[in-house]
Write a structure and sequence with these properties.
The complex is a heterodimer of chains A (about 280) and B (about 350). With about 280 residues, chain A is mainly alpha-helical. Helix content of chain A is about 70%, strand content about 0%. Chain B has a six-stranded mixed β-sheet, sandwiched between helices. Chain B has a five-stranded antiparallel β-sheet with strand order 13-12-11-14-20. Chain B has a five-stranded antiparallel β-sheet with strand order 15-19-16-17-18, with no helix packed on it. Chains A and B meet through helix 8 and helix 9 of A and strand 6 and helix 2 of B. The complex binds adenosine-5'-diphosphate (ADP) and magnesium ion.
Chain lengths: ~280, ~350
């Protein structure tokens, strides 16, 4: 669509700018709010120009947290979130790439059944199986641990399915050439399949990191000890204070900080991410 | 270097497809053997059984005197060139060549000596550090050959390695493969559906049909004495004319036309005449083949006249200055007639 009509050009840009404004405005408001002192919100109006309390607000939240809401410092919560997001992303990728490898390249009994079982679990997101999963995790004594926070979320039919599709596009001759070159199953996986799936792994990592970072319901259920709180559930906890005004400046600072790491991951891995989604040539 | 022996080799795929049946072959050390046949006749299956990529469900394959039925591909001392080249896309050309050697735990110096040597032979030295994606089809083809050469195997296996190239490059690479094989003296099995490629490359041809050997012989033997109508119509271009005829004594009758046979035969038969073994005679000559022209193809050196003789499609090759007419009278060169059994198509005599 290479059209040289000024009006269409203008329209296209107008739509884009409008879109950006709609998405960016709430973030702007949140950021501005986080730079004001706690008293600036009593009027009920959120100010639209920067305040002078930014260093103070962020400093306090990072190092002290908010004792009145039972909140540990944000640095700890962000660390917990990071552990959780990384473990889930890396764990999901590792498990699903290995299961996809088995399903595509090995002829074992009940291979089709295995594939369909994995595929069917696509229909069961965390929220549906959350009570039985909670029961299992609780019985195993994994409440308030990183393991309990991450392991139940690691199994992934979506990622397995995606890697299966990627492997199916790799010609059989490549595997045969590798066999003649003396590469056994592990070497083939490590030397050929893994590097060839690099872009897909990167794209999936971005998606899964954000998925893990944004988990809300599950950490809320399995953590009762503040030292294992994650930042996303922390935001909600701060807004739920009893018998007093929510401290919007702190809440918004937390929200901004919670947004940063996923944004960073997207920006840093943007090139690989896009390649992984659009690349077809193998 | 090694001889390869196939003893009543057969392959039945898991689904019950009987792709290859009872193949017996002795391939001499240093021989260039070409498996040729139409698509689906089991050429690739047979080659892949030699490579170890398919299990051997019947019979026995030996390479250099060692039965390899249960031996892994990497241990068979073979190298294979695939139709789509199967280069590792994430590795540079150098890494592609070196990968198999590295897996064999070969010393670094020896690997780089062999890679450089192969690069020199194939003239791919200039792009050793490029990825396959940045190479043309012909260059990829060379790299695929390079990967086979560096292993210094006792046998090369080629599965239609030229079919992804354009016509001009195909002819050029064909010549290079032939010279390379002659220089290295490595036993080679080459699969193709292109009879011209088969004729030009082979020391010996194996014509396959429906999973069975139809004929084995040097290109000239197969061309001159095709063992069946199948081989006759497959080898040689333009294809041999085949038509129903009636033999009396050593003469074949096609309508009013008569063609002298090499051997005595009686009754119904199939007569084979190569288009290039015919010459025009004076119109109305007694016993000549009467060709009704449909169209003419100019090849430059020759012109191919297509039409029908007694209702059977028929072609003949004429000199490029031959007069054209709606009707041609043709006679066969002496000794040019091929006689085949009318029922099973086997060669008579
Ligand atoms: N993996 C397979 N499973 C079942 N049948 C196969 C398989 N591969 C090939 N065939 C069948 O075996 C026959 C020979 O195939 P192939 O050796 O590839 O033929 P060619 O290389 O001569 O074209 C064909 O009929 C094909 O359909
Ligand atoms: Mg084939």
């Amino acid at each position: 669509m290479v059209e040289k009509r000024p009006f269409l050009n203008f329209l296209a840009h107008a739509v884009l700018v409008l879109g950006v404004l709609i998405v960016a405005f709430p973030i702007y408001v949140a950021f501005i709010a986080s730079t004001h002192g706690p008293t600036d919100f009593l009027s009920g109006l959120i100010p639209l120009t920067p305040g002078d309390n930014m260093v103070n607000t962020y400093g306090k939240m990072m190092t002290d947290g908010m004792a009145s809401a039972g909140m540990p410092p944000l640095s700890l919560q962000m660390f917990n979130s990071l552990i959780m997001a990384l473990t889930i992303a890396i764990g999901k990728i590792a498990i699903s790439i290995i299961s996809a490898y088995a399903i595509v390249y090995f002829r074992f009994p009940f291979r089709g059944l295995a594939f369909w079982l994995i595929f069917i679990t696509l229909m069961l997101p965390v929220e549906v199986r959350i009570l039985p999963t909670y029961h299992v995790v609780a019985s195993l004594g994994m409440l308030d641990t990183y393991a309990g926070l991450t392991i139940p979320l690691i199994a992934s039919a979506t990622a397995t399915f995606l890697f299966r599709q990627v492997f199916l596009t790799i010609p059989d001759e490549l595997m045969e050439a590798a066999r003649i070159d003396g590469a056994g199953p592990l070497k083939f996986f490590w030397d050929i399949l893994l590097p060839m799936s690099r872009n897909n792994i990167a794209a999936l990592f971005v998606i899964l990191f954000i998925y893990g970072w944004n988990q809300y319901l599950w950490p809320l259920l399995v953590t009762t000890d503040p030292s294992h709180y994650t930042i996303v559930m922390g935001i909600k906890r701060m807004a739920d204070v009893v018998d007093s005004q929510p401290q919007w400046n702190y809440i918004m600072a937390t929200a901004i900080l919670a947004m940063l790491p996923p944004v960073l991951v997207v920006i840093l891995m943007q090139k690989l991410f896009v390649k992984g989604l659009i690349e077809t040539e193998k | 270097m090694a001889a390869i022996t196939l003893k009543s080799v057969g392959k039945t795929y898991a689904g019950g497809v009987n792709a290859v049946r009872g193949i017996d072959l002795d391939i001499a050390d240093g021989e260039f053997l070409v498996l040729v046949g139409p698509s689906g006749c089991g050429k690739s299956t047979l080659l892949r059984m030699v490579a170890g990529l398919e299990t051997i469900t019947d019979g026995e394959i030996a390479i250099g005197g060692r039965v390899v039925n249960e031996v892994e591909p990497a241990e068979r001392d073979i190298a294979m060139v695939f139709q789509n080249y199967a280069l590792y896309p994430h590795m540079s050309v150098r890494q592609n060549l070196a990968y198999g050697l590295k897996n064999r735990k070969m010393a670094k110096e020896e690997i780089s000596r062999r890679v450089d040597e192969a690069a020199r032979i194939l003239e791919i030295g200039a792009f050793l550090d490029r990825k396959p994606k940045a190479l043309s089809g012909g260059q990829r083809q060379r790299v695929a050959m390079g990967r086979a050469i560096v292993r210094e195997p006792s046998c090369f296996l080629f599965d239609e390695p030229l079919s992804n190239l354009d016509a001009k490059l195909r002819v050029q690479m064909r010549g290079e493969i032939k010279q390379l094989q002659a220089r290295l003296g490595t036993t080679s099995i080459y699969v193709t559906h292109d009879q011209l490629e088969a004729m030009t490359l082979a020391h010996r041809l194996v014509v396959l049909n429906g999973g069975k050997v139809e004929q084995v012989g040097t290109p000239l033997e197969v061309y001159r004495r095709p063992a069946s109508t199948f081989v006759a119509s497959f080898i040689g271009s333009p294809a041999m004319n085949l038509m129903p005829a009636r033999a009396e004594g050593a003469v074949a009758h096609v309508g009013a036309a008569r063609v002298q046979l090499e051997i005595p035969a009686e009754g119904a038969m199939t007569l084979g005449l190569r288009p290039e073994d015919l010459r025009a005679v004076v119109p109305g000559t007694e016993g000549a083949l009467h060709l009704k022209t449909a169209y003419v193809e100019e090849l430059g050196a020759q012109r191919l006249v297509h039409g029908t003789v007694e209702g059977t499609p028929f072609g003949c090759a004429m000199p490029s200055d031959a007069a054209l007419a709606d009707e041609l009278y043709l006679a066969a060169e002496p000794g040019a007639a091929h006689a085949f059994d009318a029922q099973d198509g086997r060669r008579l005599g």
